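Q: Predict the assembly, please.
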Amino acid sequence: MKISIKKVVFAIGLATGVVSTSHAGLPDPGMVISKGNTAVVITDPQNDFLSPKGVTWGVVGKSVVANNTVENLDSLFKTAKAVDMPVFVSPHYYYPHDHEWQHEGALEVLMHNIKMFDREDALSLKGFDGSGADWLEQYKPYINDGKTVVTSPHKMYGPDSNDLVLQLRKRGIDKVILAGMSSNLCTESHLRELVEQGFEVQVVSDATAGAILPEMDAYQASLINFRMIAHAVRNTEQTVKQMKAH
Amino acid sequence: MKISIKKVVFAIGLATGVVSTSHAGLPDPGMVISKGNTAVVITDPQNDFLSPKGVTWGVVGKSVVANNTVENLDSLFKTAKAVDMPVFVSPHYYYPHDHEWQHEGALEVLMHNIKMFDREDALSLKGFDGSGADWLEQYKPYINDGKTVVTSPHKMYGPDSNDLVLQLRKRGIDKVILAGMSSNLCTESHLRELVEQGFEVQVVSDATAGAILPEMDAYQASLINFRMIAHAVRNTEQTVKQMKAH
Amino acid sequence: MKISIKKVVFAIGLATGVVSTSHAGLPDPGMVISKGNTAVVITDPQNDFLSPKGVTWGVVGKSVVANNTVENLDSLFKTAKAVDMPVFVSPHYYYPHDHEWQHEGALEVLMHNIKMFDREDALSLKGFDGSGADWLEQYKPYINDGKTVVTSPHKMYGPDSNDLVLQLRKRGIDKVILAGMSSNLCTESHLRELVEQGFEVQVVSDATAGAILPEMDAYQASLINFRMIAHAVRNTEQTVKQMKAH
Amino acid sequence: MKISIKKVVFAIGLATGVVSTSHAGLPDPGMVISKGNTAVVITDPQNDFLSPKGVTWGVVGKSVVANNTVENLDSLFKTAKAVDMPVFVSPHYYYPHDHEWQHEGALEVLMHNIKMFDREDALSLKGFDGSGADWLEQYKPYINDGKTVVTSPHKMYGPDSNDLVLQLRKRGIDKVILAGMSSNLCTESHLRELVEQGFEVQVVSDATAGAILPEMDAYQASLINFRMIAHAVRNTEQTVKQMKAH
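A: Predicted assembly structure:
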């Protein structure tokens, strides 16, 4: 039994983050958002990715602006709070001892070189406020409302080295609406690990963004993988509608 | 501190799998292959991906042929055996009970629909010989030589659900030369999990291949992620040279 | 704030596997067995542990007999099938390449020395039937009924290196009734990993058994840890009653 | 092939934490401490376990005193610093949102009831200094020397939900000298997870302690499991000698 290319032809509109589901040749399982076991998970909603003052704005800013990522993430936060859906944030911090690692992949080297997400110490908040590692200012009311669960920092790209999976399971969550920064790195590694752990995941295609470099459009790369791996890929408008209807 | 786009401009040649390291704007940490703690890891060297009779040939065949993947994997196997470097194979099998899963991502649905990697049972070999789940015939002498470590099957895309990491660690391996099928799915999920586990990884850019669909070149997507996440991306010719020199 | 010893005084009867819950000083959260999301998980229901011909009978036989473990496991299997509750079996196999590990803990050395759970190869069944690695004969109708999910083998003591957690999650299971062999090694490591993964776990205190050596009663040690770590510890009679009532 | 009870007879002296290796019937693989790839890992060196003012002193104090745990841990810290061996600390913290978990095992309920390890927030140090969650005062010079790696908190008992394994691997560590609190819970779960991840582990039998309750000697239970699972169990005196000789 073989599958023809035609059979898996993919929908028009992928590049814009608007995935047309009705015409997709690939299966589109979809994810039914249900009360009590669905949560929103946001990766790295921090200045170094989302603020024009952040250290990576030069490479991700274009995609952040094109996708309207900052406002779309805000919509997800706001809607989740409005419908009382649990929100989990998985941040990225580096401490001085992380700079002593004996080996690193390409982007790890880069992130350390540009002092991305640097903090003085896990038990120190000196210089943290307003730094690149801090939350984007406009998200603070959502994150600091006493309900949002902020996990320990992931130290590579995925939640393998933090408590996200445990925190989700301890709340009875088995479906995740995933968004945040950056699309092909932390967001995608979270997607991949969450499906390995047996979660259903819907990725919000325009509430994320990626680096765009000559010959390397990391955002486009992530869209391909989201579409193949996740249970559903929908844009913010579609997702907000689903959240309100659940 | 900001990085400019120029600073991270990426090398010409990415698309061909020949990564020019000297001109790369992204850091290129590289990986020194050293005797005793480096191994070759091959994902899914099975008929369903690599044989023209396999169920996915219609979508991956073009990339397999363009990259000369079958011969390049053969070169890696042959060289590893010649220089006595450990080889680990992480296969993909599905059993009848896997078809009872309550939810699946897009490609999982597809793989199950086309009966990819299907076996009758973990404790049955009925119908296995020469099936889509079996090794590509020309690799059998390498895999069945009594030295290659075949891990339990991974059940999603990464080694999270098998014993690959443990088997590597039990042999003192902390550097991995990674290749196999398919590039953006199992190979990349192996890369991502191996770096989360603290391994150094060099991906062999043309000893893998990916699905090529209208508007979705999964192989190109994987090259971008390999280049950003791995410690090194080299083609087979470069890798074989390194292996022989180690 | 301090807790007094009195406050955590523990119930009489622990040693017999009958945990008196009403008088227990430690909290006894209990686990409500509910339809659809509870499964039975059995570790190592294999000859090398449970048959008088098995290689460990000399050290575990006494505990197996005292607990009536073989019949109690049979009751759990039978009841699960009768009430249509999913059953998962996590076996233990060693292949020739596992004997090449560069380092091992004490019991790993012992298990390899006595050729426990040895199989010729993952893709060979030569000599398997009736061997120490095979299922205890009386459990075969339950395990081979086409419904029981047999996971890949765990290679140390816990399910970290197999697909048990994924298989449970893919079926919507978040509560586990845990039993099998041996109590303080594979059963307890399964308990510990399952709670790390956010499952609720009830351990069946007399459907397991452990090695009893001079000055080392491994079964008693496991009872202490079950009682402290698990959500509930109940004997087979109590558990069967719960399963039938659910 | 069977093993007789005699063959696995265990050495006298287990109960005192002095493991006689020469007469042990169980294999005693031992662990050679080697420069560059061995580290000391300490679990929970915090007031709630080790200070007479800590919330668990009523149940663990007797064992802490009997083992001379506080001084033995101090010796390990001091020796490691003297011979320039890396030290990793894996702490235990609970935040308000952890108190919202939907289900917990017995000791989790207890720990939450007595407010063990409580902190206001991961991004707040209010009330932390000198609290039950803070380091034992005498260890602060070692832990705050700018070299000790403090991982994210584990949230259950093992390092599954923090970055310990990654941090060790990123420093090239594959052998661990393990000590800390409490013996059968966090220390043992760290042992079990570290061996699942392929580390060699030597447990320091008297640089740990456990709860002692009527009919439940958790410290003795842990000694049995350490002896069966770890590569080596040695007391502080023996371990310090090895560290100095390496």
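Residues 32-245 of chain A form a domain with the Rossmann fold fold (CATH 3.40.50.850). The beta strands of chain A are 38-43, 87-90, 149-150, 175-181, 200-209, 212-213, 216-217, 232-234.
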